[in-house]
Amino acid sequence: MGRFIHQLVDDKMMLLLIVSIGCLNILDSFCTLAWITYGVATEANPIMSYILDIGDLAFLSCKILIVSSCLTVLWFVRNNIWAKSLILPIYLLYNCVAGMHASFAWMFYLY
Question: What is the Cα–Cα distance from 6 to 81, expressed in whole angstroms?
Fold first, then answer.
């Protein structure tokens, strides 16, 4: 199994996934802030909710900085089997979150 993952997730694929997750995180950050501003949703994470109470810029900065830091660590340990095993589920999770934002946007547009 380890050999398959090493072949599937080479350096180019790892970089592509990391950049994609970073972009999806930025999209998630701004969409979350928009839904909270419009009163459509609330922040489920209590720590991020507290930071959101401080201000929008603090929320965006922290959310983007935390995920970017984690992605940087994943890049530096990219040859580790755990890093290669985690990157695809993280990518899929962020795609699901982006899909939820798209469905919220569609519902918001319709009503």
Answer: 7
* Residue labelled with tokens 């959101």: 52
Rounded CA-CA distance 36/24 in Å is 18
Query: What tens digit of pLDDT does each residue of 57-89 get?
Result: 999 999 999 999 999 999 999 988 899 889 999
- Residue among 61, 97, 82 nearest 14 (CA): 82
Where do the domains of the chain lie? 2-110
- Which of 56, 66, 54 shows the shortest CA–CA distance to 32? 56
Are the beta carbons of 84 and 15 closer than 8 angstroms?
no
CA-nearest of 1, 4, 13, 3 to 78 is 13
**Rounded to an integer, what distance in angstroms lies between the CA atom of residue 6 and that of residue 8?**
6
Q: Residues 3-62: pLDDT tens digits? A: 666 677 788 999 999 999 999 999 999 999 999 998 888 988 999 999 999 999 999 999
